[in-house]
UniProtKB/TrEMBL annotation:
The lineage of its organism: Bacteria, Pseudomonadati, Bacteroidota, Cytophagia, Cytophagales. InterPro entries: NAD(P)-bd_dom_sf, RCK_C, RCK_C_sf, RCK_N, Trk_Ktr_HKT_K-transport. Residues 1-116 form the RCK N-terminal domain. It comes from Algoriphagus zhangzhouensis. One of its GO terms (molecular function) is monoatomic cation transmembrane transporter activity. Residues 149-229 form the RCK C-terminal domain. This is Trk system potassium uptake protein TrkA. One of its GO terms (biological process) is potassium ion transport.
Length: 229
């Protein structure tokens, strides 16, 4: 897919680099040459231009891009103007970062396809993870359901998945198992790296140190987490 990302601050630059790493074509745009210079070797293309200038923005392939992301994080005026310009250019899909509630109201009225709040979403995800003891990571699906990454309780070590029967006891589905493996980086320092097993069969034997990726109701996840207490 093709992306244009406006604003190469911390959020925009990281997003541009990650999408590039995933094999997508990304154009990173910022009016600060120092910022574009820093990431020029890590993003497909980088352009130094003023995204509030309609004539300058017309040089970007807005209509041929799958998603335009307005990632400007400080200048509300620049974000609004840039969003309006891409809307006028009939970009296929526009995702805009909201800086505050008033800003969100304005860009929503312009007609963006999606509004994101990176800081709030990160804080919300972290708070939900911290409130459940034993959760290493989490992804809330709804108010009732969650996907969590947890350590395997000791009582299940050495059991086959069919023997543990976590689904029957706690109404939780094991989506996969993650193993932490030792890796040595270029500096010779040993680090831990995650390896996802894939689809788990009933015959898979659970081992000490395994991490389970579970899906189910939050109340049932909490009951499962209390096993080692």
């Amino acid at each position: 897919m093709k992306y244009i990302i406006i604003g190469m601050g911390n959020f925009g630059a990281y997003l541009a680099m990650r999408l590039t790493e995933m094999g997508h074509e990304v154009i990173g745009v910022d009016n600060n040459e120092n910022r574009t210079e820093l990431i020029k070797d890590k993003v497909t293309h980088v352009v130094t231009l003023n995204a509030t200038d309609p004539q300058a923005v017309k040089n970007l392939p807005a209509r041929d891009t799958d998603v335009v992301i307005i990632a400007i994080g400080e200048d509300v005026g620049a974000s609004i103007l840039s969003t309006a310009i891409f809307k006028q250019l009939q970009a296929k899909r526009i995702i805009a970062r909201a800086i505050n509630s008033l800003h969100e109201t304005v860009i929503r009225s312009i007609g963006v396809d999606e509004i994101i709040h990176p800081e709030e979403e990160t804080a919300d995800r972290l708070s939900k993870r911290l409130q459940m003891k034993g959760v290493l990571d989490s992804l809330q699906i709804s108010d009732e359901y969650n996907i969590v990454e947890v350590k395997l309780p000791k009582r299940y070590v050495g059991m086959k998945v069919s023997e543990a029967d976590i689904r029957k006891e706690f109404y939780l589905n094991i989506l996969t198992v993650i193993k932490m493996e030792d890796k040595t980086n270029l500096l010779g320092i040993k680090t831990k790296e995650k390896r996802v097993i894939g689809v788990i069969t009933p015959e898979y034997t659970l081992e000490e140190g395994d991490l389970l990726l579970l899906f189910g109701k939050i109340k049932n996840i909490q009951e499962f987490l209390n096993l080692d207490e």
